[in-house]
């Protein structure tokens, strides 16, 4: 009897759909774990200041340190996942992240914490470096747009959870106890990801540019191919502009949330440790923007949505200058909405535009994205020290004006290209 029984088309479609759903869920949960660990420090800045005897504003630089190591590690994971596949490096990095959380329990001084956060940045980079390329490899174009929107929404939920959980725990627990709770949450998430992540994808990913390798392939020829992959995307002027947009937008967004906490803890607000973390609920407007971004881009066009996003971020900052609780909340709701609309669009655009070396294209975007976050803290710090929150808003507005100019050139270049095609036809 022939054991190779053909699979009915309907059954095959159902299996593919279930595999796609599992992939989306697993990478989204992995994203939540990553961003809980990344942004935990923003929710426990007062606890860090007390525990390690440093200024709260200096404690805020911990996020910059982690973002810096994370930015360059993204490039490493892009190369690694193109060589050995997506699943293995992703899972190994998550389990090593659990080990680093355990080590944080035994940190004795601030310098050790900085060193460990640098290491965590390396481990946290795996999921964002691999996720969009993983989606591109395994999902259809339509499913990938939805997956990207859900994944970015999970990013925002992870960011909210990390800050709020940290802020709530810091009210009642000591440093070691807070880290132990985060370790437990992360453990549950990582085990769930391991169980959900499909063992085999549709493409059983082994990159075409690496398949060409033979036994005679040398390390320097492999390195040359990897560098060529990065250079291929850096030669693309449109991709370079998208990378710059992501970096500038994140520079403003994530660091404004750090400094607004310091503002709300000072006069005339005098918010407490947990109260200041509630400002991160404004990320929920970004979650909404992420979920609907693919639908809105399809309906209204990317250029219009990007213009709306920049306007929302700019006006959001100005509204906070009214310096009331309501105005600050409205302003950050506007800024979050605009930022995540912009980020979702850029992230999907990069993944769609990259025909080859997809993980490298995504990694370059996220490298610029997290470099923006790491540079934003030191950039805004002197403005905060001299002019307070109004100085932060002014410095952010300068960056947003540069960002608007870059987007204008990007959209104008596309319009000129369309006009040339119309003239020829």
UniProtKB/TrEMBL annotation:
Name listed for the protein in its UniProt record: MFS transporter
Gene3D superfamilies, sorted: MFS general substrate transporter like domains (1.20.1250.20)
Subcellular location: Cell membrane
Entry similarity comment: Belongs to the major facilitator superfamily.
Record-linked PANTHER family: BLL2771 PROTEIN, INNER MEMBRANE TRANSPORT PROTEIN YNFM
Main localisation: membrane
Transmembrane segments: 23-49, 55-78, 90-108, 114-135, 147-169, 175-197, 242-262, 274-293, 305-324, 330-350, 362-381, 387-407
Pfam families for the chain: MFS_1
SUPFAM superfamilies reported for this sequence: MFS general substrate transporter
Species per Swiss-Prot/TrEMBL record: Shewanella nanhaiensis
Topology of the protein relative to the lipid bilayer: Multi-pass membrane protein
Keyword terms, alphabetized: Cell membrane, Membrane, Transmembrane, Transmembrane helix, Transport
Domain Major facilitator superfamily (MFS) profile: 23-412
